[in-house]
Amino acid sequence: DIENVIVTAYNNIEGNCVISNWLGEDVNVRCYDADDEPADMAYLIAIIGRLPGSTTSVVGQALAADETDSSYEPLNVYNAGGGDVTASRTDVGTYSVAFDGLNLNAGANIHVDSYGLGRRCGVAAWAGNTVNVTCTNTSGTLQDSPYSIVVFQD
Q: What percent of the chain is predicted at pLDDT more than 70?
């Protein structure tokens, strides 16, 4: 089962590719040029799932789909630490995701991707069990957006 999806424009620093939606095993991707106009371009996609007994290094993941709720449990959560996953909105385009039971200070790599059109999301910082996320429009102004997050750890 698909638990999370990561997409990135390939070999195009000015382009941006986003997940427009996914259902089951079908993932739809849209790409845009620097002016936020639809564009054809190559992209890389990582489709992540969980298998019992897997030795994968994915230790946390979530789809934070309710970009205006102050605090909620996101969709498609996985937390190898065994605790809850909580997404919070602290201000316009500013979020945090807490993975109770994980220590992200111990060699974590984190990927955040916007889940929608005309938006860009990324990791602002992380410490302890919490990742801070910011999302902007293509002009760089903070804007609310759903996003997916994947935490890799050795």
A: 86
Between 153 and 148, where is the model more confident? 148
For the chain, how far is it from start to end, CA to CA, in angstroms? 23
* 3-state SS assignment for residue 71: strand
**CA angle, residues 105, 107, 112, in degrees to nearest 5:** 85
Separation of alpha carbons 20 and 69, rounded Å:
21
Q: What is the pLDDT of residues 3-23, one digit of tens each?
A: 677 787 776 667 788 888 887
Residue 103 is classified by DSSP as -
Q: Please report the sign of the dihedral spanned by the C-alpha atoms of residue 128, residue 7, residue 85, residue 56.
A: negative
CA angle 143, 3, 147 (to 5 degrees): 5
Name which of 106, 114, 111 is nearest 142 in CA terms: 114
> How is residue 71 written in tokens?
């605090």
pLDDT for 81:
92
Question: What residue has token string 């959560």?
Answer: 77
